[in-house]
Amino acid sequence: xxxxxxxxFEIVALAHTEALMRxxxxxxxxxxxxxxxxxxxxLSAWRSFQQFEHGTNCRAWLFKIxxxxxxxxxxxxxxxxxxxxxxxxxxxxxxxxxxxxxxxxDVLASVNRLPDDQRSVIVLAAVEGxxxxxxxxxxxxxxxxxxxxxxxxxxxxxxxxxxVG
Amino acid sequence: MPAFSKERxxxxxxxxxxxxxxxxxxxxxxxxxxxxxxxxAGCASCRLLLHQQQESDTRIREAIxxxxxxxxxxxxxxxxxxxxxxxxxxxxTRRHSYWRLAVAAxxxxxxxxxxxxxxxxxxxxxxxxxxxTEETASSSHTEWKTKATGLDVYxxxxxxxxxxxxxxxxxxxQLSKAKECLxxxxxxxxxxYDNGTDQMSMYVTxxxxxxxxxxxxxxxxxxxxxxxxxxxxVTIGNLHGERVILVGALSAASEQQAVNEVLEExxxxxxx
Lengths: 165, 272
What we know:
The structure holds two protein chains of two kinds.
Chain A: H1 2-12, H2 17-28, H3 31-47, H4 58-76, E1 94-97, E2 100-103, H5 104-113, H6 116-127, H7 132-139, H8 143-164
Antiparallel strand pairs in A: 1-2
Helix pairs in contact in A: 2-3, 2-6, 3-4, 4-7, 5-8, 6-8, 7-8
Chain B: H1 13-24, H2 30-42, H3 44-66, H4 72-89, H5 95-110, H6 125-137, E1 145-146, H7 151-159, H8 163-166, E2 174-183, E3 186-194, E4 199-204, H9 211-219, E5 224-227, E6 232-239, E7 242-249, H10 253-271
Antiparallel strand pairs in B: 1-2, 2-3, 3-4, 5-6, 6-7
Helix pairs in contact in B: 1-2, 1-3, 2-3, 5-10
């Protein structure tokens, strides 16, 4: 019985480890800390997996747990360090914004420079494809707040990337 | 949903900017969507704004997804912790008694006569050790023969007789599953008994297989050797570049006695 439940958890929940890790890394700015967050998230999800309603959005459920974990971690440690992530920036990694050629590392550095609240919503929306309504559930904030943070994040990114270019 | 002007003629640029996140995420529909599309069809600045925002999202997505993210180790650590939690909370796995019984049975039975089946040389002690680890230490049983998959026939085919094994004189335990494991080029049969709460393992092996323990201990370059509170000796080492975990112990006298009784019964059965 428990083995079946674990196997189901592996299929339904653990499959989202990479997605959680991506967002946790961008949100905390630290890879090791992100691993801790994801591990705590998964263990927390495992402990309440019996309460998970099958057929509902497991991915959104996991992200909601994860942001709760991150929020608790922030309360414990008042400041999370923002670090420059050393992503590759060869010619192959160039992206084009308008007529400017900007490396992935510049894009990532700009994302890292966003305020925490804006960085979370933009990564959830742009990378993980969550809707505003889903993000409002995940972050436990009103949908109007999600929309305004998204708009500000996009405007700020545009501004930061223009300076890079 | 936030309010915004729904009058066709009154949708202004600021309205479009307000609902832009909903438009980009595809959450606008019906009249709201029609209003935005009507507006941007005639408004170049709003059209450009939405295009830039969508483009910005694409850049972020490409940049973040471009980095390799290998989470296999993390996933293994999570699974390991889950298994540990399962063992410590599940009523099926009273850990200490299970381990003590399993290892005691293993240690004693290894020294006694059992079943010998020749096999190819292609398997190594390392593989056997992994096999053992997977089957017992990690409790991740795979490919077991159970009652549903012809356990009696399976065991009888390997042990020669199943009757004495079924009548194992540990009160309440019944043979629930079995699996062949390899030790070097030899097979041993891993039998699991169940009393509805705990499980107990028995290993029926060729005689004098306790040499395996010496062999592994001598060659595995132990990096960690410790004794648990239940008397288990755990050795973690490295063998031919692969990590091995060896578990061995002497059990408490009472458990040893129980195992000896089992063995006596098995021996009597074989003699008769």
